[in-house]
Amino acid sequence: MTNRSTLLLIAALGTASAPAFAHVFVQSGTATVGGSYRAVLAVPHGCGASPTTKITVQIPEGMIAVKPMPKPGWLIETKKGPYAQSYDFMHGMKASEGIKQISWTGKLENDFYDEFVFSAYLPASLKADAPLYLPTLQTCENGSEDWAQIPAAGQDSHSLKSPAPAVRLAAAPAKDAMAQMAGMIHAGDLMISAPWTRATPPAAKVAGGYLTVTNNGKSSDRLIGGSFAGGSRIEVHEMSVTDGVMKMRPLNAGLEIKPGATVKLEPGGYHLMLMDLKKPFAKGEKIKAQLQFEKAGKVDVELDVNAVGASAPAGGGHAH
């Protein structure tokens, strides 16, 4: 083989092994306005061969109620500020300020890929079929990459050297909105929506449960626990990161739902633990359960069983 042929072969192999994405991008794709959104920011490489040590994302106007997910081994810092306007939030509430910037500090070697996650709410007033851009600064041990370029009208973002990660917005189908409303229940001053869980392996004895609770009253209530068909009891737990180690603990005093607050029980944060399963949960099933609140009392719900590893409800659980 000639030297020229050898060089051509090396170049071809190098091109074939290059990552599919050469920049930081949003893995989670299209988002529906008028609802919650789980943003997954993907980092496919470092700065050249240098490890990534910090990811800083700017939250665009219109993306509200942002909450970053803890990440083992990484320190999270946030900056808050006022929004340019007040936005309608869930159940008639208004939001006028919140997190405007998130930074994760840690270390990601160039040989590895990783994801950085946060949840947000996208008000119905946002324009569908239009992107939201999340300028992101990737700081490395040697150098940095500022993924902040926003394309002009009609310009292809692929033509930019350092395009900002983008989320494309879509209008909510009417049937989805109706299904979401059908999955809500009032229990005193509380409103409960979208109860769900995940399918479990055959030998599993516990399962996580998730839902959203809004307190429209003037005094606090507490979610204490509950019971469910096919197991012994429901406990309320919290997932948190201490000194870079993710830990889970039961909330023996229950989870406080403050007046005017909306509390999400979701993967990586507050959640229900369904204990002592008698049989595994299968995707498509509905698990009958009864939640116990300090003031609202007992509330019957059905948890939709989604796929193993699901990160959000498929279409809204049901409450009665």
Automatic annotation (TrEMBL):
Signal peptide: 1-22
Top-level taxonomic group: Bacteria
Name this polypeptide is given: DUF1775 domain-containing protein
SUPFAM superfamilies: DR1885-like metal-binding protein (SSF110087)
Keywords linked to the UniProt accession: Signal
Domain YncI copper-binding residues, every copy: 23-169
Species, as recorded: Tardiphaga alba
Keyword Signal among record annotations: yes
Pfam families to which the protein is assigned, alphabetical: DUF1775, PCuAC
